[in-house]
Amino acid sequence: MQLDAADLTALIALCRAEIDLHCEHLSVLDSAIGDGDHGANMRRGLEAVYAEREAIAALPLPAALEKIGLVLVMSIGGAAGPLYGTLLMELGRGLPDAPDAAAFAATLGRAVEAVARRGRSGPGDKTLLDVLYPVQAEVAGRAAPARIAECAQSAARATEMMLARRGRASYLGERSVGHEDPGASSCALLTTTICLYLKEHAAP
């Protein structure tokens, strides 16, 4: 997997557009079990990354990921900023400049565990980790990008019937069941956007 400056610029623009398109839906999901601002927060974060896209794209991939993570921490409100930021900063710190599939899978695994520690949560707690864990497993298994995207979408939908054990949604107890987790949903949207781009454009 090799990404050049053009790829990074395109991916930033596509992720920004996808979050903007689904901003209202993400906030509706969050209104049911949270503060109702996840869509707006994610849009603000992706806009901030987009504003720095040229500087980010000029960096080697590990440094670019770390920079994106830092921007998200500084611009996304609530719990999502630190969680997404941790994921990307840990990826950036752990990757070589030209990672192969094995290096990426191993580093992603460590980054997901860092997110779990940061959020003090794990699989089944109804968070974005319920997307990240199965996605990481597919990456480790060398699944095709389209398969990884399908996995992310399915995993996000599966959070609907989970009982929230972390975050504001956990205060609702049984009432959190029946609502898709907004963080899992935004994670699936971003994962799908990245995977479909890689399917069409990135060199193996």
UniProtKB/TrEMBL annotation:
Molecular functions (GO terms): glycerone kinase activity
InterPro entries, A to Z: DhaK_L_YcgS (IPR012737), DhaL_dom (IPR004007), DhaL_dom_sf (IPR036117), Dihydroxyacetone_Kinase (IPR050861)
Domain of life: Bacteria
GO BP terms in the entry: glycerol catabolic process
DhaL domain segment(s): 6-196
GO CC list: cytosol
Record's keyword terms, sorted: Kinase, Transferase
Descriptive protein name: Dihydroxyacetone kinase, L subunit
Organism name: Ancylobacter novellus (strain ATCC 8093 / DSM 506 / JCM 20403 / CCM 1077 / IAM 12100 / NBRC 12443 / NCIMB 10456)
